[in-house]
Predict the structure of MFS transporter.
Amino acid sequence: MLQPVSATNDLPPDAPAAPAPVLRVSTLSPFAFPAFRIIWIANLFANLGTWAQSVAAAWIITTEQSSPLMVAMIQVAAAFPLVALSILTGVLADNYDRRKVMLTGMLLELAGGVFITVLAFAGLLHPITLIASVFCIAIGSAVVTPAWQAAVGEQVPRAHVGSAVLLNSVNFNVARAVGPAIGGLLLGAMGAPWVFLLNCFCYGSLIWAIWRWKRDLPVRRLPPEGIFEGVVAALRYTQHSTVTRVVMLRSFAFGLSASALWALLPLLAHEHEGGSALLYGYMLGALGLGAIVGSAAVRRAQAAWGASRLVSVAAGLLAACLLALGLAGSLWIAFPALLLSGGCWIGVLATYNTTVQMLVPDWVKARALALYQTAIFGGLAAGSFMWGHFAGTMGVSGALAAAGIMLGITVALLYRSRLPEHVDTQSLARADSAEPALAAAGFNTQHGAVLVAVEYQIERDKLSALIQAAHPLRLLRLRNGAQQWQLFRDLEREGVWREVFLVESWMQYLRMIDRMTLADKMVLDKVHALHAGGKPPVVSRNVSYLAMNEAQGFSLRRDPESL
């Protein structure tokens, strides 16, 4: 059974904490923390097995003389569950023990891998059953991914999260450089079934590492959110959060064009003179090697250029590489283009991931990462289908060149959509605040709207400052759970202004308070500083009569004739 938890930053600021080692933040500094180090090593083995299996799976479909669309459907089957389910599993990851959520999804993935292996040894694995099996494994991946991404902050201190995200990307790309070569060698020497069996053993090592990862779970103040409630909260946060909106937009556009690289690479290798599984493995290895080399420059490039410019430059270079792959048939051009493509790929994705990790509060982090994953994998799934279809009509080279042109156009169109730069991450820690009693007698805390009014006394010379502060105050309330917000001037009392916002229920109002970060508190403190008088602003909380009726067992349905 899943155990409710809250993020480390939900602890009160004065809670005792174990002394942490003082380390200089660098790319390798997360390895000083045992939990991250052990999981990283086990994940490397798991990724090696996954990439070895991907070579065998893609080659089975390619050698079965399947259509380009069928080849591209492997990418669609792998990406679609992540698009459809990530936000739902993100709610679980934000409300329950992320370790147990990961273990649940990993066991589903392992079961799918065992199923593919059994089919392969029985000689029953063909393109349709392979795509169906990949789809089932991707369902487990959809459970794991939001919890995995958000759990990085539980393995290392916040200051090292950016480096940990980059190291996880390096892990993935080291495996992408080596795993396909292993898969290609085993595929040629022993056959596809043994490659699938290797993947099962490699993935078992990661399950073991997560199983033995133990840490203290802080006590959660409020009950976990329901699935629908959690999804609504995430969408409301995204609507009023610049970080998640811009990342989702740009990552979807990037994935839509860049997906051609992964969807059509098996066909590019197969069409080449002397094309073989080994050549496909070498091509994937070149992508991985490029990503490893590129990862060393990501931190310095981001510090020099900023996140937005780094993403634009990397995506623009990837567009040029796609054009080169499409227009040039020589391996002397293809392999350098693949090396550069790998570096550009990790530069874009690591920057997006780190931006969400560092600029989103813990209470919604898994859901924000899930929405980012939904956007990027939505682009990959739609793009893989689209480029697979185009490859059947205009050829693989033509589809790759068209993808490069489309990516270049999107980079130019979205250049002005700026990503927020990193701020002081401590400002996203939970702010301690006075909380109304949860056991509110006389009404139902789950139903019936709550109307909150805050009365300020504002002197005339501070009126412009209040108007300027209204916008961030509005975003704060709506982002954290308010349904409506307004600032009113009292026409009968000089200098009196009322901030009024509506919340769905008393429980949602308590969640708003619990979600308050230090950055949010700074916005409130700025508004409160404009208030005149020796006493703080007057706050009134009003509960709908519907909560009273439900608490007393009255029927909420009335005969229309009685109204």
About this structure: Strands lie at 450-457, 484-489, 496-503, 538-543. The radius of gyration is 26 Å.
